[in-house]
Amino acid sequence: MDDTLHHGLWHRRLSGKKLGAGQTGSTQSFTSAERDKPIRIIKGNDLVDDMRRSRYMSNGEETPDGETSPDGADSDGEVESPDGEASEAGITLSVDELEAQLDDIGETIEAANTEADLDHAQSTLETVETGVETLAAADASDSEDADDEDDESPVESLQTVVEDTRETLSEARGPYDTDVIEQIETVSETIDDTRWTANGISSLADAVDTFGTVLQEEVGATLEIEDTVSEELIAGLESAIEAVTDAELDPDDDADAVKTLLDAAEALATAAEDAEDWSDLETNEQLRAEGFYDVLGHYKDFPPEWAALKRHEREDNPEMVLLALDALGSEFMERHCLETFSRMGKRAATDDVIEELLARAQKRDESAIEALGKMRATEAIDPLVEFVDEDSNPQLQKVTFRSLGEIGASEAVGPLAQKLVVDNQHVRPIAARALGMIGDTRAIAPLAETLAGDDSQDVRSATAWALRQIGTREALEAAAEHIDAEAFAVRHEARLAADALDLAQSA
User: Fold this and answer.
1) What is the residue-level pLDDT of the chain in tens, covering all 507 positions?
2) What phi, psi does 229 have (nearest 5°)?
3) Neighbours of 207 (CB within 10 A)
């Protein structure tokens, strides 16, 4: 039991004030007025009766039933009014009396064998705390008259002891079956949230099996775990929680069983903390454990990760490329992983790969945006459309336009059409080509207008190409009108459009 429960220490706490600056080796004593300052406790509990009797007996006075005590209280705890009649207001308790009662509570906690004993101590403590609060309120009104505001008053010392006693009382309770359940739930969450190595999951299975042995001994339940995988271990621990709950262990009658189960659950938690998880491995160990290097035979590229990456690309293993992207932190390997995704295109378009690329695209990673376009990932349309108006970043715009075109994002037709008239002549042709790849007929009018009026030959040839990609009669006719254009690229696209019209008419 904590030493603060001993009467001597509590008495020292309340018998002197804190040392002021420069004071050493002694304490200041409270005045008799400070120590005997009374409070009123409402009549009707054991504390009042016990304290009333102890006050008078300590003075050698008797308080037989019905007899009035020296302070006006009769033996039933009533206080006489000025006219001699009894009052229900209560009796008064001083700091010394409250201190003595706190000593008694500490001894009760130390000697407690059951939860009922501790409940009784808590009830008494709450009564004392009410008295201390009453005294504190009275003390606060006199605080302006104090000589040294830094000194701890007797009431403040009492409040400190009350708080310490509450903590000691809390520590003395239990353990309960709910503590066991809470510990098991924590381990289950750890298993579920962690990526384990083969060694780690094996050691966890052994720890769960050991806990199951204790569970069987204490509550007669058996854990059935069919396989050494996280899901099976979690299911086993869930059944353990049900078994402990159904046992309805009493903290008094089943104290030994609860303590044994809690110790076993804490040992299981320690085993989970010590088990090897994925983050404990070095990068090359992680890759080797996942089989990343298994494709390597004789290779000439360096580093070996790059050589393995090329093999995984040829063998259509996007998961391994994603593994390398996550594990390898160098810019060199990151660039090659993203380029690999672009070359693989739709062959790499798994949910996990797209999720990773979208996260990178949100951060304006141009390589990721390009890869999403090559994969024709429709999930990327909404975030990419937001980048169309990034006029301050033309390079990002161009990559975004191409990807939206490759995806065929009809949602982007309006925003892209508006970029046919921006000042940057390097952005306008990319917007035109993106509209052509999308192939939406809503783009015919703005493309035809740009073809007729733009000063840049690159822009005009790009719009003529876009109209030809759309391929409707209206689009082909708009492009064919410029068959005599001065710029060769424009004339070439116009001639191809005219040929397409002739072919359509002869068909």
Assistant:
1) 344 333 333 333 344 333 333 333 333 334 444 444 444 443 334 444 444 444 444 444 444 444 444 444 444 444 343 333 333 344 446 788 888 888 888 888 888 778 888 888 888 888 888 888 877 777 776 665 555 555 667 888 888 888 898 888 888 777 889 999 999 999 999 999 998 888 899 999 999 999 999 999 999 999 888 787 889 999 999 999 999 999 999 988 898 999 999 999 999 999 999 998 877 766 777 677 767 777 776 665 567 888 888 889 998 899 999 988 988 878 888 999 999 999 999 999 999 999 999 999 999 999 999 999 999 999 999 999 999 999 999 999 999 999 999 999 999 999 999 999 999 999 999 999 999 999 999 999 999 999 999 999 999 999 999 999 999 999 999 999 999 999 999 999 999 999 999 988 886
2) -135, 160
3) 21
Q: What share of the chain is helix, strand, coil (3-state, %, to 5)?
A: 70, 5, 30
Distance CA 3, CA 331 (A): 61
User: What would the DSSP string read from start to end of 87-116?
Assistant: ESS-EEE-HHHHHHHHHHHHHHHHH--SHH
Show the tokens assigned to 188.
Answer: 């289950």
Closest CA to 496 of 506, 507, 505, 471: 471
What pairs with residue 79 in β-bridges? 73, 87
Q: Where are the alpha helices (DSSP H) in 173-197?
A: 177-193
Contact 155, 163 (CB under 8 A): no
> Closest by alpha carbon to 341, among 321, 363, 364, 358?
321
The two structure tokens encoding residue 32: 């008799």
The model's pTM: 0.51
Amino acid present at 244:
V
Partners of 222 in beta bridges: none
Instruction: Give the closest residue to 53 by CA, choosing from 41, 63, 65, 67.
Output: 63
Residue type present at position 502: D
Tell me the residue type at 176.
Y
CB 469 within 8 A of CB 447: no
* Residue found under tokens 């989970």: 272
Residue 73's DSSP bridge partners are 79
Helices (H), 142-176: 154-172
Computed over its alpha carbons, how large is the radius of gyration of the chain? 42
Q: Let me know: does 293 contact 304? Beta carbons within 8 Å.
A: yes
Provide the β-strand partners of residue 29: 16
Q: Nearest CA to 380 among 355, 397, 399, 363? A: 355
* Cα 282 to Cα 133: distance, rounded to the nearest angstrom: 59
Query: Which CA distances in Å does 321 have to 84, 308, 378?
Result: 96, 9, 21
Cα–Cα distance, 87 to 78 (Å, whole number) = 5
Query: Is the peptide bond preceding residue 175 cis, with omega within 30 degrees of 0?
Result: yes
Burial of 255 per CB tally in 10 Å (0-12, 13-18, 19+)? middle
Q: With contact defined as beta carbons under 8 Å apart, do 477 and 448 qualify?
A: no
